[in-house]
Design brief:
This protein is α/β, with parallel strands linked by helices. It is built from 10 helices and 8 strands. It has an 8-stranded mixed β-sheet with strand order 1-2-4-3-5-6-7-8, sandwiched between helices. Strand 7, helix 9 (about 250-260) and strand 8 (about 265-270) form a beta-alpha-beta unit. Helix 4 (about 120-135) crosses helix 6. The longest helix is centred in the middle third of the chain and has 16 residues, at about 120-135. The protein is globular.
Length: about 300
């Protein structure tokens, strides 16, 4: 499929749009994160709305895709689409990522998570629980429990980087299954991520939707994740476009600088053009980032092609 995408981008886009569905037929399993009820109720009710970007999620899920056994490499990636902490753009960044990752040999689990709606801890609960569920099923899926990473786009990149920098915290308050398992990712892939919530470079919509209007300075700093990097932060791959007018590229630049200052294995690709939200769009000037990320993952995890 990657070769088709490179050679015939317009055809690939047409096929992709035609084949994508809210619950992809190629998914092997859909897992409910909180079968006994989530730790925090965000107050949203009613069915989820939208297809390409889903809002009003009340029952968060993991949609799991497995690679062909002949390609399986024993690693898994939790995929967190963006959407400004207002919606989850599963069609745009979720399902295409699962296709790419499984083709590269990874198990991919796409997270459809709940919005904060005045409770900032809600998406963090979902992401941490998703990491634990993946590790709880690792042996069954042929995945090594120490080869489970996270990938996030835009606001999903903020959520992913929160999982990777706040792993000493448990936002569930001790509620849920598999609490004995770590929710720290073994690596991160952050694509045009929201990182900082500080005013100069924050994406205002994501910051407001997550923390509310006029959030205390201490809370804003707490979730400005460039301030949370330590020597224990997981290895990280970052990609951004220099002409991104939605999420300023300094989000990635600042995070990368902190990773290097703390000696974290990391790689950063800043494309001149690509704007925001390019995802896996083959027509984007940044359309080679997935191949660069695959190469980085193979080197990091010592996977042979």
């Amino acid at each position: 499929m990657s070769a088709l995408r490179r050679l015939f981008p317009a055809l690939f886009v047409a096929l992709l749009v035609a084949c994508l569905a809210p619950s992809p037929a190629s998914a092997q399993e859909v897992i409910t994160l909180w079968p006994d009820g989530a730790p925090t109720d965000n107050g949203l009710t009613g069915p989820p709305q939208g297809e390409r970007c889903v809002g009003n999620v009340t029952e968060p899920t993991l949609t799991v895709f497995h690679p062909d056994p002949s390609r399986a490499n024993g690693a898994a990636v939790l995929v967190i689409p963006g959407g400004g902490y207002a919606v989850v753009c599963v069609q745009v960044e979720g399902w295409p990522s699962a296709e790419w990752l499984t083709e590269a040999g990874f198990t991919a689990a796409v997270l459809t998570y709940r919005m904060p709606n005045g409770h900032y801890e809600v998406p963090f609960q979902d992401a941490q629980q998703a990491m634990r569920i993946i590790r709880s099923r690792a042996a069954e899926w042929g995945v090594a429990a120490d080869r489970v990473g996270v990938m996030g786009f835009s606001a999903g990149g903020h959520l992913a980087s929160t999982v990777g920098t706040h792993f000493t915290e448990d936002f569930s308050g001790g509620k849920g299954d598999h609490l004995e398992l770590s929710h720290r990712p073994d690596f991160m892939i952050l694509v045009y991520p929201v990182i900082t919530l500080l005013p100069d470079y924050a994406h205002g919509g994501s910051a407001r939707n997550l923390l509310g209007e006029d959030a205390p300075a201490s809370l804003v700093a707490r979730f400005s994740n460039q301030l949370r990097v330590t020597p224990d932060t997981p290895p990280t791959f970052l990609v951004h476009a220099g002409d991104d007018e939605t999420v300023h590229p300094f989000n990635s630049i600042q995070f990368y600088e902190e990773l290097k200052l703390h000696g974290i294995q990391s790689e950063f690709h800043l494309f001149d053009h690509g704007s925001h939200g390019f995802g896996l769009n083959p027509a984007s000037p940044a359309n080679m980032w997935d191949e660069l990320a695959t190469d980085w993952l193979y080197r990091l995890l010592e996977i042979s092609r």
